[in-house]
Amino acid sequence: MTLSARFDLSGRVALVTGAAQGLGRAMSLALAEAGADILAVDRNTAGAEQTAEEIARLGRRVIVAGCDVSSPDDIERLFARLDAEFGRIDVLGNVAGDGILARPEDITLAQVRQVLDNLVVGRFVCCQQAGRRMLAAGRGSIINIGSLASLAALGRGHIAYSMAMGAVVQMTRELSTEWSSQGVRVNAILPAQIVNPSLEARMTADPQLRATYLRGIPLGRLGQPDDIRGVSVFLASDASAWITGALIPLDGGNLALNGGGTVRVDCEGEGAAAKLVFTFLPPERGALPPAAQEPVLAE
Ligand SMILES: NC(=O)c1ccc[n+]([C@@H]2O[C@H](COP(=O)([O-])OP(=O)(O)OC[C@H]3O[C@@H](n4cnc5c(N)ncnc54)[C@H](O)[C@@H]3O)[C@@H](O)[C@H]2O)c1
Fold first, then answer.
1. Nearest-atom index, ligand 1, CA of 44
2. Is 263 inside a domain boundary?
3. pTM above 0.85, yes or no
4. Using CA positions, which residue lies closest to atom 11 of ligand 1?
């Protein structure tokens, strides 16, 4: 098989939730560009229609379906529609679902349950529905969207979101373990801060927040939705045929960076003219114990 054939999704069908904007839209367009037909799913059907227009321009078949992923009944109807329209599913992009920010001491149980319904139960029911069909066909790729909050704490009111995203990685590992021997691969992408309307609103409300984020991103910029395109096609396609149960950071290096790491951001100038300057410091040899400053032969 040629390298380009490994990435080719021609003849495959992908169901992507959250397709109206952001990561789900970018994933839908990337999978379509690689050849897949798309079931574009969102509770915002007007937005999903706009994504669908772009997919149709690529020459792929695309259907829009309204669905609230926090409703298992909605998801059951969605998959009945998938069966009727496409009769197969090769790729599930499990993207939709948002959180609620509140302090741990204040958040209500109703809010916690709402976040779990959105991000855990919703992702699981989509996996279960897709998984049943993929197991019957003996092939399929599921891509779950987790977060930095799947592996590390964020603070700033992310308690319910983090609990949910932690569950998404264990869901991914368990499903991969149960299903991969039958041809169904299950992986997760863990994004850091990727610009979307709610992130923009939070950064506008707290002018320090952008710099706080950037201090943790050695690559020196926030993510953009298009950053998910390459890894989506890779995980959906035969290019990743021996990869399952993987948690892939999409984070500009954030998870690799310890809090005591050496990326530094300084602000030069003020107001609208202010710009952030990144300095990558050399290892501080003086901070090491003396013996460790000498070259050491590896064994
Ligand atoms: N953007 C980031 O920085 C970031 C980082 C880590 C994880 N994530 C996760 O990635 C996913 C997508 O993020 P995004 O940045 O594209 O967000 P976004 O807000 O730009 O888009 C989310 C889309 O999902 C849809 N949606 C939300 N809840 C839904 C529901 N219950 N049913 C159906 N549709 C629903 C919205 O209508 C919207 O079109 C989310 O689960 C988010 O938590 C995002």
1. 37
2. no
3. yes
4. 95
